[in-house]
Design brief:
6-stranded mixed β-sheet, Rossmann fold, 4-stranded parallel β-sheet, single chain, alpha/beta, 2 domains
Amino acid sequence: MNYDDQALELHKQYKGKITTSLRDTSELDKDKLSAYYTPGVAAVSRAIADDESLLPVYTWTNNLVAVISDGSAVLGLGNIGPKGSMPVMEGKSLLFKHFAGIDSIPIILDVHTADEIVATVKAIAPSFGAINLEDIAAPLCFEIEERLKAELNIPVFHDDQHGTAVVVLAGLINAMKVVGKNLADSKIVIIGAGAAGTAITKLLHLYGVGSIIAVDSKGIVGSARDDLNDEKIKLLDYVDSSASGSLEDALNGADIFIGVSRPELLTPALIAHMSDKPVVFALANPMPEIMPDAAKEAGVAVIATGRSDFPNQVNNAIAFPGIFRGALDNGVTKITDQHKIAAAEVIASLVESPTADTIIPSVFDERLVPEIAKIIK
């Protein structure tokens, strides 16, 4: 099927993917209108003004997320600008509603500095119950998220970072069961030190994996490099900072390859340098670092991608609907690293008997949202 043509036709036919609807669908008569709007609504406004904690009791903020992007790092398309990002933000809203019953509003920002984005989000934050940051380029995304988490009293979650990291960890927990290895003793190579790669590295380090080597376009990210930006210097606290060399050097004896970089980067020759029963998460999208069939021919024991047309799709939608559902329902104001690890463990547990082709539950598994939501508290 040509998904490009189908996407263009569906978006044109329906003029987008989302709309708003009324919660009270019964007949709107004169008395009810007077209660929902003037004069009755003044009583609700006074109540909230007197006690701001009542905002989610009386308004839709109890179930409302802002999906915010500046369009600077959209899918594999790069910096295509705010307007080009809108279909993706609408898509995120579709996923929120379909999988978790969460209302959300896509907001595209035509400002591109940390100060401008933070100020804008803070200004509109009172209208929402949570903030989902999306497709904001690294390294700016790190500063923006950290500042907003510190300055707002509602959950702030950059899904490109943490949703990816959670599902990767879940998949690795089960992949290790398939290959009979211990994640704590494994050597992991992560190529791509942007938003997703950095978050994956930090979460795996926190989980207690054996050894992590990060690789960017110039080679291994280590202390011998004199060209590292501030974020990559901070990354040295989570990786084998003494390592140096190329991707080939990094892969010597590696148990796990995680790619969040560019297509066709991993070759059979490079896989030959890895340990026995190698695990490969080739997550560049839409074209992965190596196609699954080629990976299997090269001896890879477990292969995962970001694509929906192969087994083991690492899809953020497996994690974020349940995380936000739990945060909104349980009054959580900060989504912590402990929440992320707990979510990954729940996701992994839903695959009762992992196999090489089944290490991650389907995004359509109806257990995901309620089971994840339980532990976000």
